[in-house]
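Can't paste images in this forum, so I'm doing it all in text. The chain is below; anyone willing to post the predicted structure tokens underneath?
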Amino acid sequence: MTSFDSEYAHKLAIQELQVRYSIAIDSGDYNILDDIFTPDAVGIYGRPYIGIEE
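Text version of the structure:
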């Protein structure tokens, strides 16, 4: 495998993870995230948004 092929394969793998993450969030199927993140992953998404006004 050439370095170009390797770089392309890595980029494709990242894109596939992004798609799977989006599907998990959009569908509310958070079990999908178990296959995306490592067991020690920490997610920090900013402050909570409460209510329709936010």
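Residues 1-54 form one domain. The chain has a mean pLDDT of 90.
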